[in-house]
Amino acid sequence: MFLFFQKKYPILSFSFVLGGSFAPITYLFDTHGTAIENKKYHKVYLKEIMELINKYEIEKWDGFNQYDPDVLDGTSFSLKIKYRDGRVIYARGENSFPEHYHDFYNEFNLLINIIEKRI
């Protein structure tokens, strides 16, 4: 089963951190059961994450690192995706977001709500 999973899903881990005027929340999906800070989900949900990555072309966010200095109290994010082939996608922003970010965030939030009802 694990070998099948490795062949079908090229992602080792997906980490999405949200911050702002509240304590940061870390969402981690991985294949190794590694616990990180706040929220950890089993590898079975990587399929749904991969669908969002593809739908919103998240790989194009790689290298995004922007902030808006005119906003004093806002939100921030960081995203890190590790692939089995060694690639790493990393993006971060403070009150500045890449294309499709808000659509991705809204759908990601819906997915989290569904997952948390299952577990």
Number of strands: 6
Order of helices and strands: HEEEHEEEH
Parts with pLDDT < 50 across at least 5 consecutive residues? 1-7, 34-38
- Arrangement of strands in the largest sheet: 3-2-1-5-6-4
Strand percentage: 25-35%
Specify the structural class: alpha/beta
Estimate nothing, just give the exact number of structural domains.
1
Tell me the Rg in angstroms.
14 Å
Mean pLDDT equals 76
Name the shape in a single word: globular
Distance N terminus to C terminus?
Answer: 21 Å
**Number of helical segments with 4 or more residues:** 3
Q: Level of helix content?
A: 25-40%
Q: Sheet bearing the most strands, described? A: 6 strands, mixed
